[in-house]
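Archive record:
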Amino acid sequence: MPLKLPDQLPAIELLKKENIFVMDDSRAHMQDIRPLKIVILNLMPLKITTETDLIRLLSNTPLQLEVSFMKLRSHTPKNTPIEHMMMFYRDFQQMRKERYDGMIITGAPVETLDFEDVTYWDEMTEIFSWARTHVTSTLYICWAAQAGLYYHYGVPKYQLPKKMFGVFPQHTLQSKLPIFRGFDDVFQMPHSRHTEIHREDIEKQHELSLIAESPESGVSIVMAREGREFFITGHLEYAPNTLDKEYRRDCGIRDDVDLPKNYYKDNNPSNEPLVTWRAHANLFYNNWINYYVYQATPFDINTIR
């Protein structure tokens, strides 16, 4: 089944060019199916890019998904047209009485700030608490993963001397979990962050399970509440050229960013990126939707607790 997306969402035409089958609201209403409701809280500056990256991965499931976009009332994005935000996004306050089968909370360019110094921290914590009673399973990505672990479990973050930047091999630590069904023992994941969390802090919390990590990039995926929460420190959703764009944006401007590791062919930025994470990215999101959303969510969405 394809995804059910808002009419005129830019991602629809972008993904059709990649031969990915999506459909808008008008066509979806013709199908007598209860779609899984997925909400994305998109905190990234380039909203349309992030929308497209996530929808690309969600499109691989055989289930019909209805995707909605949430925004913060306490923060106004600077890099996305206001018309786009008004057409496709709703404030959390407008959505707080609704329930969702799955939720994705993206990273945000605020990781070097203390959590409490983020201008929208109060609203974020309200959403974190709300998700526990209104969503079957939630994916926290990058900064959101660090923020969620800090808020729910008191796990601190630590400043890195240089940006963790590139594509790094990750090792599955609990390979029999459904989220890793079909995975190899080692898989690749892009990382782009200035802070990290430590294994020993995860291990202090008996409610948390470290399920994937890397010798170089550290803690990778943490699971809680039997899969109702996943905290992912990297970016499986990244498009092939995302790290390249970040590198060229920051090159010569910042002194804490090196060439992204394990990314360009022959480690030469004049060459094309070598995409090594796409298959496992699709598998991860497909497993999440199937085993932790579809098979765990109640038939009556209003009974989610």
